[in-house]
Amino acid sequence: MSKEHSSVSGQLGECELQFTTIEAIGETVSSLRASFANGTMRDIAFRKQLLRDFLRGLRESKKELLDAVYFDLHKPRAETSYAEYDAVEYELGQFLDNLDKWAKPARNTLAMLQPAFLLSKSETRKEPLGTVVIIGPWNYPLRLILLPAVGALAAGNTVVVKPSEMAPHTALAIGNLVSKYLDPSVIRVVQGGVKETTALLSEKFDHYFYTGSGPVGKIVAHAAAEHLSGITLELGGKSPTIVHADVADLVPTALRIMWSKLTNAGQTCVATDYLLVHRSVKDKLVPLLVDAVAGLYGKSPQKSPDYGRIINARHWNRLMDALDATEGTVIDVVEDQPDENDLYFPPTIVDGVRPDDSLMKDELFGPILPIITYDTLDEAIALVNSRDQPLTMYVFSKRDTADVVLSRTRSGGATVNDTMFTSASLSTSFGGVGPSGVGSYQGKQSFDTFSNHRHVLTRPLWFPSAGVDTVRGPPFTGSDNSWKASTLNSMVYPKLWSLSDSVLGKLLTLIPFWRALAIIPCFLWALIRAKPVVRRRDD
Ligand code: NAD
């Protein structure tokens, strides 16, 4: 570690984060590459022990971790517990319970439909990629580093994690957890800001996993492209919530929308960014949204122990500028005012917003809810489609209406009649589409993301016989050889049911047994006609 210190500290606690030196970054990556090469991580039992150590470390560090996130974001410990800590604990449990099953080679039974693979063993092995890097943001600083790290280690990779320097307490707590409980030959933490991350990205990794904003996502994608390595980009965007005229009940709707807007003071990638509401229900919904704020945080959320703070003055001013420039109508929601010194930004609802308003330019990432009113569903769908594909979207309506919306829009995920709960489901994958992300993870999908799906085909040398084997290559011309192409074709790419013209052809391709029988005439024909290309030498 260098003597250089982070200039960023948490608002509620004093903390100096020592940055990793540029030389140490290079050494860290080299040593992790060397330990990957020694093969220890190939052993599933070793990986499971690692996950058990991880779990023990996580549990024993729980207080330190929850305190750290509180100091960085004023996030209530209960919220960090369910939204971050518990998710990581659950993920470790999922992997401990399922790793043996997920890591098992999968037999490719469909290869049986291709007669050329008779007596062959076709399987997909899940192998580690190598040494991977995981770079995380500040808004869920614990979860977004540790959750992918579980998958990366379980899949057998050696791992460098780089927590966000903008959440220094959490970065430090993650560093302590990793150095105290986990094997330094397989996972290490690099601390730092842009300079250190740039140095880290100049190293060759076998996979780059990044969570954060789109502009930095492009930098990471460039770095991965330099080495032709894989990437997962978990990005953001403006995720809409649509409330249609046929919504069943506006009361839970209002609560669920404001919950997503105000959790972590709106600094959540899957928060409702803006609200599209049908004109017929708008006037009933708005007062309920205001009531929901009071119900969650009272009339003075600044005094609430549960209301978060904006991460820093730059982001606070960004929100203030966007609000100052709006042409919408700011509604009275709470009694207190924005307070830069405390990084407090009150829950804010802005009605009558137009699609080209200042609040509609970029992802808000803060507790401001712009409301756009629409008259027809087509109008709402067109507005969503006029923007980049969001990370997620929420539709409050009858199922049929929601299906219309989903069938005509694109987003990474979607939830009908709720918000944000999709991210709590760790048995399903999570990720964006287009500008909101590349790839996905969580649970089994994490294992697959961090694995090389290696197709291994094992063939007997004696089958097919040397003569029949000649079908695979030239010469294809001349009367002695003209039969080869069609035989090869029916052995490798025989007609499947839907491709066969005759009923007999269809029947023959119905089940592998018949398909095996169907190939017998081809083999017989080949046996009669074929001459080995390479003859055995007598030596
Ligand atoms: P951030 O500023 O903490 O940056 C993320 C990481 O990138 C940090 O580790 C930082 O050190 C590094 N970084 C920053 N600038 C860099 C540069 N120029 N070169 C190299 N590395 C650099 O976090 P952020 O980007 O402000 O995060 C907020 C964004 O993340 C939002 O858009 C949000 O929607 C998105 N997000 C997405 C998800 C998801 O799961 N899809 C989750 C959380 C946040």
Automatic annotation (TrEMBL):
<dbReference type="GO" id="GO:0006081">
    <property type="term" value="P:aldehyde metabolic process"/>
</dbReference>
<dbReference type="InterPro" id="IPR016163">
    <property type="entry name" value="Ald_DH_C"/>
</dbReference>
<keyword id="KW-0812">Transmembrane</keyword>
<keyword id="KW-0560">Oxidoreductase</keyword>
<feature type="active site">
    <location>
        <position position="234"/>
    </location>
</feature>
<feature type="transmembrane region" description="Helical">
    <location>
        <begin position="507"/>
        <end position="528"/>
    </location>
</feature>
<feature type="active site">
    <location>
        <position position="269"/>
    </location>
</feature>
<dbReference type="InterPro" id="IPR012394">
    <property type="entry name" value="Aldehyde_DH_NAD(P)"/>
</dbReference>
<protein>
    <recommendedName>
        <fullName>Aldehyde dehydrogenase</fullName>
    </recommendedName>
</protein>
<feature type="domain" description="Aldehyde dehydrogenase">
    <location>
        <begin position="24"/>
        <end position="456"/>
    </location>
</feature>
<dbReference type="Pfam" id="PF00171">
    <property type="entry name" value="Aldedh"/>
</dbReference>
<dbReference type="InterPro" id="IPR015590">
    <property type="entry name" value="Aldehyde_DH_dom"/>
</dbReference>
<keyword id="KW-0520">NAD</keyword>
<dbReference type="InterPro" id="IPR016161">
    <property type="entry name" value="Ald_DH/histidinol_DH"/>
</dbReference>
<dbReference type="GO" id="GO:0005737">
    <property type="term" value="C:cytoplasm"/>
</dbReference>
<dbReference type="InterPro" id="IPR016162">
    <property type="entry name" value="Ald_DH_N"/>
</dbReference>
<dbReference type="InterPro" id="IPR029510">
    <property type="entry name" value="Ald_DH_CS_GLU"/>
</dbReference>
<keyword id="KW-1133">Transmembrane helix</keyword>
<comment type="similarity">
    <text>Belongs to the aldehyde dehydrogenase family.</text>
</comment>
<dbReference type="GO" id="GO:0004029">
    <property type="term" value="F:aldehyde dehydrogenase (NAD+) activity"/>
</dbReference>
<keyword id="KW-0472">Membrane</keyword>
<dbReference type="InterPro" id="IPR016160">
    <property type="entry name" value="Ald_DH_CS_CYS"/>
</dbReference>
